[in-house]
Write a structure and sequence with these properties.
The chain is α+β, with helices and mostly antiparallel strands and about 725 residues long. The protein has 27 helices and 20 strands. The strands form 7 sheets. Strands 2-3-1-9-10 form a 5-stranded antiparallel sheet. Strands 15-17-18-16 form a 4-stranded antiparallel sheet, sandwiched between helices. Strands 4-6-5 form a 3-stranded antiparallel sheet.
Length: about 725
């Protein structure tokens, strides 16, 4: 057979959690492609994201595989030449043994240079292996190397994989690739739908696999077709009831990896349950039962749902009735909690928080509420919130955790914060207070919703700063990939809150380091020991700065731009964000050369000042003495630095960093002429220190917006002398 071949690998398992499948399918395909060796080996092409796979099967489908590897010549080094040959040049036992091990005659041994002197070597031709042989070795190795968020051990032999394996199909075109994994031999026999057509079903060839599963096994292996089928049948079922399905891409993706032969049934629940707040009903359907909520033509929540099932129909209505019964029971509980919870106000529930631990080292949720109230008040003042918003932030902070002791949140923990806002409205509290409680946990992800109100943003910021400060003070710092308290997410949230609306447009500025000290002081006032608070605050400041750098790079800033901005200071996160954006915009063609030249000069200035300090010539903040300026170029630079320094104060004050950077860029010709004509390290000590003071002032000016010495200048040679 000539040309290229197609390989199919299907590993049949018990049901794999939907969240694990997309990454696992891509990982399997990538690992197999690596084993095939790419263009230098057997080639191979696979689509990513992986187009095939489902809850009971990991599938890799690879095309364009060459028949066999190219023959190649390899050189294997052996013992030192001094040990391989005697003084007469005859091979010793060491040489003879090495030649025998390599399968060549001793006369064919070579002398080559090694890292530690001359060694003997064997050069031999290695015939290329057939694709089937390569795959037979690679498949068990690839499967053994796969890792999942949770692995499973079963049997008495300690077998470990994501789930127990029941069958393996491995076909190179129509030929079985033989291997064994976890006691299962590969073959051509697959399995169908667990109930509709379990099989076994033989697959004639790799390209027949998808058709056989669909026609005989009642399994749709195509991820895209399952997704499209769910959408189409969901919308058809909704239309038949006079509803519309509410769009939910995340739920659609999850359901795509939960079923193999999708169908949809429409169910109803008693309209009396619509008295329950809509978020509760939607959560019961979406998070607990994986149903799509239905809505009326006017956009109101309907008393119905759309459930995806693992078969194409429900002829006797048993599945629909079962789902209706389960949802009705959940909504009955929710209605009970809704009625019971409102018998006590959020304020009346505060004493109950004393029995809810925030963390064993950090006190109760009641103590946390008091810290949040104090911290939110301080942050609101720094942010420049008006009296009404500041009062709403403090009031919301005081009762923000009260819904943790409600029956509804106990039943639906996903609704913490949301229910607090709903209960606050039901009590008649101001909308700003209710909305702030509702927004306290936002943003939950980089692309997630952010608070829309100033009070909500301040409370969300206080919540995250309190969590971060307490955990760092208690030594609960993320290690490696482990982050059980979500501190990286919280730090990213701090950055997002400060650089986006509504805090970004607030009249004031929030000083990060002072805010961290304020949060740590809140613990200390409650008797929680905080050792070395300055060190804790510094570590946290750096930790948050790393997340800000990530955001800058995601927004299009170069790595060196982000580093330069952060090196110039990041205590005002929003200001640092604006500086990065301005520097990124102004590193375009119109100004790039000026900035790169200034970056080179900044590096040179830094080195000159460092060398001067080593020699005892540190200007140590001394002012420039104009009378000592002798050369025209240094006088010119002194005037330019003074002029630009004064000119940038006003734009920096109003955060117009682009204008400040353009003014700084205008210094380039003055700096170039200074270094071309002036000897900084002059023989006269007074003149030398004066010129160093001039450079020190220039260095401070250059770092007002960004630390220019951090900018990478491609092709830059070693630092020039002074």
């Amino acid at each position: 057979m000539t040309g290229t071949r197609t390989f199919l690998l299907e590993v049949g398992c018990e049901e794999i959690p939907a969240a694990m499948l997309p990454g696992a399918l891509d990982d399997l395909a990538r690992r197999l492609l690596v084993e095939l060796g790419g263009p230098e080996g057997l080639g191979g092409e696979a689509l990513l994201p992986a187009p095939l796979g489902g809850p009971r099967r990991l599938i890799a489908f690879i095309t364009s595989i060459r028949e066999r590897e190219d023959d190649r010549v390899v050189q294997v080094t052996g013992p030192p030449a001094s040990a391989a040959f005697d003084p007469q040049g005859r091979p010793t036992k060491a040489a003879l043994g090495f030649a025998r091990a390599q399968g060549i005659d001793p006369e064919r041994l070579l002398r080559v240079k090694g890292d530690k002197g001359e060694v003997v070597a064997a050069r031999k031709e290695v015939p290329g292996r057939a694709a089937a042989a390569v795959l037979a070795e690679a498949c068990p190795r690839v499967l053994s190397a796969m890792r999942f968020p949770k692995m499973m051990k079963w049997g008495d032999q300690g077998k470990i994989f994501v789930r127990p394996v029941h069958w393996i199909v491995a076909l190179l075109d129509g030929d079985v690739v033989p291997f064994e994994f976890l006691g299962i031999r590969s073959g051509r026999s697959s399995r169908g739908h667990r109930f509709l057509a379990p099989g076994p079903h033989d697959v004639p060839a790799a390209r027949d696999h998808e058709r056989v599963l669909r026609d005989k096994g009642k399994v749709e292996a195509s991820v895209a077709r399952r997704r499209e089928t769910i959408e189409a049948r969901r919308d058809e079922a909704a239309a038949a009831q006079g509803w519309r399905a509410r769009s939910d891409p995340a739920l659609l993706e999850e359901l795509t990896f939960l079923v193999e032969w999708p169908g949809v049934v429409a169910g109803r629940f008693p309209e009396e349950f619509l008295e329950i707040p809509e978020p509760v009903i939607v959560t019961a359907m979406r998070h607990h039962q994986k149903y799509f909520p239905a809505e009326t033509a006017g956009g109101r929540l309907a008393a119905g749902f759309l459930a995806v099932i693992n078969q194409d129909s429900d002829p006797d209505g048993a599945i629909r009735k079962g789902n209706e019964w389960v949802l009705k029971a959940r909504l009955s509980d929710a209605r009970f909690f809704w009625r019971e919870d409102r018998k006590k106000s959020l304020q009346q529930r505060l004493p109950d928080l004393a029995r809810v631990s925030f963390h064993e080292k950090l006190g109760s949720s009641l103590e946390r509420s008091r810290r949040l109230e104090a911290l939110a008040g301080v942050l609101a003042g720094w942010a420049g919130l008006g009296p009404a918003d500041a009062a709403a932030a403090r009031e919301a902070a005081r009762i923000s955790k009260a819904d943790l002791v409600t029956g509804m949140v106990g039943e639906f923990p996903e609704l913490q914060g949301v229910m607090g806002g709903i209960y606050a409205r039901a009590e008649g509290l101001p909308e700003a207070t209710a909305k702030a409680i509702e927004e306290q946990y936002l943003p939950a992800s980089p692309l997630g919703a952010r608070p829309a109100t100033p009070a909500g943003a301040v409370l969300a910021l206080a919540d995250k700063l309190d969590l971060l400060s307490g955990c760092f003070a208690a030594g609960l710092i993320p290690r490696g990939s482990a982050d059980p308290y979500g501190l990286r997410r919280a730090a990213l949230g701090v950055c997002l809150l400060c650089v986006h609306e509504p805090l970004a447009s607030a009249r004031g500025r929030i000083p990060l380091r002072r805010a961290l000290h304020e949060a740590l002081d809140g613990y200390a006032r409650q008797g929680v020991a905080v050792e070395h608070p300055g060190d804790v605050a510094s570590a946290l400041h750096d930790f948050i700065g790393q997340r800000l750098r990530f955001l800058m790079e995601e927004a299009g800033s170069r790595l060196d731009t982000a580093r330069a901005v952060l090196a110039a200071g990041a205590d005002d996160l929003h200001d640092a964000w604006l500086r990065a954006r301005a520097l990124t915009e102004l590193r375009g063609p119109a100004h790039e050369q000026d900035f790169l030249a200034l970056a080179s000069s900044a590096k040179r200035i830094r080195n000159i000042l460092a060398q001067a300090r080593e020699r005892g010539d540190d200007p140590d903040g001394a002012p420039v003495e104009a009378a000592r300026l002798a050369d025209a170029e240094e006088k010119e630079l002194h005037r330019a630095v003074a002029r630009v320094g004064e000119a940038i104060e006003e734009p920096i004050a109003r955060r117009d960093h682009a204008s400040a950077l353009r003014a700084i860029a205008s210094l380039r010709p003055h700096v170039d002429r200074f270094f071309d004509k002036v000897l900084v390290m002059a023989p006269d000590a007074g003149q030398r220190r004066n010129r160093l003071a001039l450079l020190q002032g220039l260095s401070r000016l250059l770092s007002r917006v960004a630390e220019f010495s951090e900018i990478v200048v491609e092709g830059e040679s070693s630092e020039r002398s002074a």
